[in-house]
Design goal:
The chain has one domain (3-108). It has four helices and no strands. It has helices at 3-25, 31-47, 53-74, 80-108. The model has no long low-confidence stretch (mean pLDDT 85).
Length: 109
């Protein structure tokens, strides 16, 4: 496994754990948001191999949509809204980076 992929795996695990923890602590704003955004960028840049792009984009897109819509529906339930927002802050940058990398890869070929 390449060093970057290993770091991306850790960023993914740490990001999801932090998103849940930050969701329990309170709303995701300020420095907490930037931590999750940076982890999302690291996940998108380092964690996704070429063969994993399409499954990640499908799962990432579903996660973003469900988190956004689920927050509207379940946001009033204790902590659920905050956790879903934290997951959005983590996965939106990761999904955008992977999608951009995939578009550039398709344009090259």
């Amino acid at each position: 496994m390449a060093k970057g992929a290993h770091m991306g795996s850790w960023a993914f695990l740490i990001g999801v754990i932090l998103a849940v923890i930050f969701g329990f602590i309170g709303s995701v704003q300020g420095v907490v948001s930037w931590i999750l955004v940076v982890l999302g960028l690291v996940i998108g840049l380092l964690n996704i191999a070429e063969k994993e792009v399409e499954p990640f984009l499908m799962a990432g897109t579903v996660l973003v949509i469900v988190s956004a819509l689920g927050n509207d529906v379940m946001g009033s339930i204790l902590y659920i809204g905050n956790i879903l927002n934290a997951l959005l802050v983590l996965f939106v940058p990761a999904t955008v980076i992977v999608a951009l990398k995939h578009v550039f890869s398709m344009a090259r070929n």
